[in-house]
């Protein structure tokens, strides 16, 4: 048995030595002998991945003491929790590539001690940039997975919060964490999310937005089926409602699922405002969505086919604004839509201050010049500007892009068949939404299938005293959030 162990150890040692020689081909990999220990040891690490202060303060200082006589003694003396003695080279190599220091006593010894000395420099926690709110917390996710989990743990200090980590990407080896509340979340959603991520066969995973496109129920749909958020409070509330959260190392945003269409029009600030004010802003966003999608298509349909429905008081204004325009309504609308999209893209790609200047000055100059050159009418210019503003009211960035794309088929349908074309295009969109699902739940819930109790937190938000149940379409293990009897307003003693 001893002879067999020696053969295995010798083969493993040879493999480790050969692999270390391959790693030395990289200029930032260091492997050298430390002579101050009772027996010579080899220290290996990537200098671009480790923190020199941790290396000298917590590791090297113990090699010159009596604790450096053996790996077991060194293991006990190093004041770092993340450490292990291992013979598996694959595990050792993975730790080297993540900022660990590997210590080996003698080239013929099969065992190595790896200690965590990773350099953890990153961006500090700042306020949200995309989902900014006037009222509520001002913390946003950063690119560190451990720090993001800390932000979630602070908001949900419960032992029922489960975090399952896995590695995605054969080259990037990106850490992905699935978060859920074990006593609330339906196991089916957790298993579905876990299986979809585990089944991914990719080499490089740079950001969670790429992961979302691969695990959605229908990746070909223009509608997002998972909510991407940069707010820890929004993800924590989603977990409390029975959703599943996903975080990725190197990505400053998280993902919540399952999701429904209405939640893409809900700003998390709505929950921090009084219920009547939050409901007003939600209704305003729904109206803005319809206006942004239908305004220009109705303009084309009415001026091409249905000019009879224009009021007599408004007809002279429209005729005078279009009397010198040489283009039909479709081409006129397309020119303005293309111009506004150019301004958006230019403003997004340029530096912040320059982008704001380009957006404001470019819009004023181009709009004024287009009207004076008789390339477009004043009325269409107003509609285009209001449609662009209406699309910006959507809190989720991916949904605002969806609204921008949806306008084009409606405009083409309006040119072909007028108002009938708009209804036909709307029927196709509605049919697609009826078939769409997010982790298995209907995308149009609670309207289809109808759940009357869940309408309390949809287009309008009712007071918290009546929202004591979690959404029924999540099929949670515990559907009750709190005791409704204790949520009612009680009279004071002196009343």
How do the helices and strands line up, and which of them pair or pack?
Blueprint: H1 2-23, E1 29-34, E2 41-46, H2 52-63, H3 71-77, E3 83-86, H4 89-96, E4 100-105, E5 112-116, H5 145-155, E6 161-168, E7 174-181, H6 187-198, H7 208-215, E8 227-229, H8 232-241, E9 244-248, E10 254-257, H9 275-304, H10 315-322, H11 329-349, H12 352-372, H13 378-391, H14 397-417, H15 419-435, E11 437-438, E12 441-442
Antiparallel strand pairs: 1-2, 2-4, 3-5, 4-5, 6-7, 7-9, 8-10, 9-10, 11-12
InterPro entries: Spore_Ger, UPF0353/GerABKA_families
Keywords: Membrane, Transmembrane, Transmembrane helix
Protein name: Spore germination protein
Please sum up the structure shown.
The chain is an alpha+beta fold. The protein has helices at 2-23, 52-63, 71-77, 89-96, 145-155, 187-198, 208-215, 232-241, 275-304, 315-322, 329-349, 352-372, 378-391, 397-417, 419-435, and strands at 29-34, 41-46, 83-86, 100-105, 112-116, 161-168, 174-181, 227-229, 244-248, 254-257, 437-438, 441-442. The chain folds into three domains: 2-116, no CATH class; 122-259 and 471-495, no CATH class; 285-442, no CATH class.
Textual characterization of the structure:
The chain is an alpha+beta fold. The protein has 3 domains: 2-116, no CATH class; 122-259 and 471-495, no CATH class; 285-442, no CATH class. It is 45% helix and 12% strand. The chain is built from 15 helices and 12 strands. The strands form 3 sheets. Strands 1-2-4-5-3 form a 5-stranded antiparallel β-sheet, sandwiched between helices. A 5-stranded antiparallel β-sheet has the order 6-7-9-10-8, with helices on both faces. It has a two-stranded antiparallel sheet with strand order 11-12. Helix 5 crosses helix 8 and helix 14 packs antiparallel against helix 15 (419-435). This is Spore germination protein. It comes from Paenibacillus thermoaerophilus.
